[in-house]
Amino acid sequence: MAKWVVSAKRADFAATAEKFHIDQVIARIIRNRDIVGDENIDRFLNGTLADMHPPRLLKDAERAAEILMDKIRDRRRIRVIGDYDIDGICASYILLAGLRFLGADADVVIPHRIHDGYGMNDHMIEEAQEAGVDMILTCDNGIAAGAQIALARSLGMTVVVTDHHEVPYETKSDGTRRELLPAADAVIDPKQEACGYPFDGICGAVVAYKLMQVMLGEKPGGEGQTLLQELLAFAAFATVGDVMELVDENRVIVKYGLRRIAGSANRGMQALLTVCGLRDRPLSAYHIGFVLGPCLNATGRLDTADRALQMFAAEDGAEAVRIAGELKELNDSRKNMTLQGTQRAVRLIEESDLRGDKVLVVYLPDCHESLAGIIAGRIRERYGKPVFVLTDAEDGVKGSGRSIETYHMYDRMSECKELYTKYGGHKMAAGVSMPRENVERFRRYLNEHCGLSEEDLEEKIHIDVPMPMSYVTPELVRQLSVLEPFGNGNPKPVFAQKNLRLVRGRILGKNGSVGRYTVEDQEGRRFEMLYFGDLEVWHAFLRANFGQDACERLYGGSGGSMRIHVIYYPELDVYQGRERLQMIMQDYCKGD
To answer: Mean of the pLDDT values across residues 538-557?
Structure first.
């Protein structure tokens, strides 16, 4: 069971609530997110696009814009080299749409995940030269492609890098780091030391969007601004899809970008909403992260990300819908393959000495290499540990890692980079290629040098407010929406109540995967509560603590004396115009 921790940060909640016309519960949650000071609170609650940071603060943004405008005026051929995930696809489209609007002779090449791997390679540089490309513009990659950029420049090409990943570095004898920046004509990456941009947590598509802000800002008239409003949808899509923290300007980008997605004039975006059943429905970050986004990722994993780019660039609505349908079908196939791969990984861990490792390195030679990252994420959720999933590739072993908050994956990997042929990433995720014979050395090194304590690995659930369900009103639930968008860095708030009695229960859903319960507090007030978690584990908990008979009575409608503590989130269920409060159980333990 997870450890429950009550957030106890102090502030004058009554004063904050009065000043900003919010409930004190909302004021407490804002403080728990470390939003302090009237100016910051106002920006959190009421931030607008005007609160985005000026794009020219990005180092080399103006330099890159000047280079590109010169190439456009001289009719030089520009090639965008992107990436095959959500961020790379959206960044590629932003640059392609912006450059073509400005009259550029531009195209996009997205590496094939299996045949090319991540980022640029020598073959792509050589192909660009053969095609008469004068300039390469990267997005969501390039910061670690020093050798390829050197090759391109030696062949007479101009190179501009736009990226958001960690800058490679070497550790000097005195323990300090020296950045290994590529020798490009301009490098835009907020993570480079010399960059004065005030927030380095933006994704690659936002970096691309900022560059277009600089360039389109020079265009007279309103058409450039109209295009920027349209492209904001893609910046927001990528921000959620690449699991960026929804803080600072990311919060504004997603808040306003969700509206742009819903009303987008882009035929591909509307087609994707249609095939996923989300057309004309309110959108949240959840829909991007778990419904729409995976369709883009699936094409890059199982086919080619070019399909997603073609969908966004489609001028014919029927063609866009056809491609969107194919992407959804690919994602459905990906789900089944991911489930099978995750099951194999769990069996391997449970039946070997991997179970005792603090950093899990799981070698699945027959796994489709494009699914390694998703499976790593599933295993991390199950075990609460950093995870790498490795699989056989054409030239050795490739894989992806997913981390936890207490483990900086990229930094730890960088300590044994001699084991790899290629690697990259950031704190929470990484990719790696290595010779097959280095897999066990990799596993041993990471575990011997991980620096993780048992406390670091202990799952914690942070409770925003210990709040009785009787305090919840429809108005409070509506006020909770001012905290959106929810996601990484701004989680949906949770509350806790002790000693609820389970009165009766029903199993719902086509697959019997949802539990609906009536619960009663110690004053006899009753509430409706839903549980979408693992019902098998839930029922095992009930049997172990209260007995089989009590569990049967619960579903028989006769109630019982079972008391539990719960962590929950309140929602409004609206059906045929009528509102009904319901509590969503997030976690549970035995009551007093």
So the answer is: 91
Q: Can you name the residues that pair with 527 across neighbouring β-strands? A: 519
Sorting pLDDT into bands at 50, 70 and 90, what band is 237? very high
E-assigned strand segments in 177-243: 177-179, 186-188
Q: Give dist(CA 513, CA 73) in Å, integer.
A: 60
Tokens 């921000």 label which residue? 239
Say how far apart CA 573 and CA 582 lie, in whole Å: 7
Domain range list for the chain: 55-223, 352-457, 460-590
Strand ranges (E), 405-478: 422-425, 429-434, 460-463, 465-466
What is the rounded CA–CA span in Å between residue 45 and residue 144?
Answer: 38
According to DSSP, the β-strands at 563-575 and 495-508 are antiparallel
The amino acid that residue 246 corresponds to is L
What CA–CA distance (Å, rounded) separates 204 from 91?
6
Q: What are phi and psi of 339, to 5 degrees?
A: -60, -45
CB-neighbour burial class of residue 131 (10 A; exposed 0-12, middle 13-18, buried 19+): exposed
**Better-predicted residue by pLDDT, 177 or 183:** 183
C-alpha span between 380 and 389 (Å, rounded): 10
The percent of residues in the chain predicted with pLDDT above 90, rounded, is 79
CATH topology agreement for domains 55-223 and 460-590? no
The secondary element (H helix, E strand) that includes residue 503 is: strand 495-508
Residue carrying the six token digits 């696809």: 89
At the topology level of CATH, where does 460-590 sit? OB fold (Dihydrolipoamide Acetyltransferase, E2P) (2.40.50)
Average pLDDT over residues 114-119: 73
554 close to 562: Cβ distance less than 8 angstroms: yes
Q: For residues 421 and 434, is the Cβ–Cβ distance under 8 A?
A: yes
List 162's β-bridge partners, or say none: 188
CATH number, span 352-457: 3.10.310.30
> Which runs of consecutive H residues, i.e. helices, occur in 51-186?
61-73, 86-101, 122-130, 146-154
**CA–CA distances in Å: residue 47 to residues 231, 251, 255, 484:** 19, 9, 9, 12
Which run of H or of E encompasses 589?
strand 578-590
At 359-406, the pLDDT tens digits run 999 999 999 888 898 899 999 988 999 999 999 987 899 999 999 989
Per the prediction, the chain carries an average pLDDT of 93
Question: Which CATH architecture is the domain 55-223 placed in?
Answer: Alpha-Beta Complex (3.90)
Model confidence over 569-586: pLDDT tens digits?
A: 999 998 777 889 999 999
Distance between CA 528 and CA 223 in Å, rounded?
Answer: 51
List all residues 6 or more positions away from 299 whose beta carbon is below 8 Å from its beta carbon. 305, 307, 308, 326, 327, 330
**Can you give the pLDDT at residue 219?**
56
pLDDT of residue 169: 87
Q: How many angstroms separate the Cα of 183 from the Cα of each of 40, 118, 204, 213, 491?
A: 39, 19, 19, 24, 39
Region 269-290: mean pLDDT is 94
- Tens of pLDDT, residue by residue over 349-360, are 999 999 999 999
- Output the pLDDT for position 226: 92
- Please state, in angstroms and rounded to a whole number, the distance separating the CA atoms of residues 386 and 361: 9
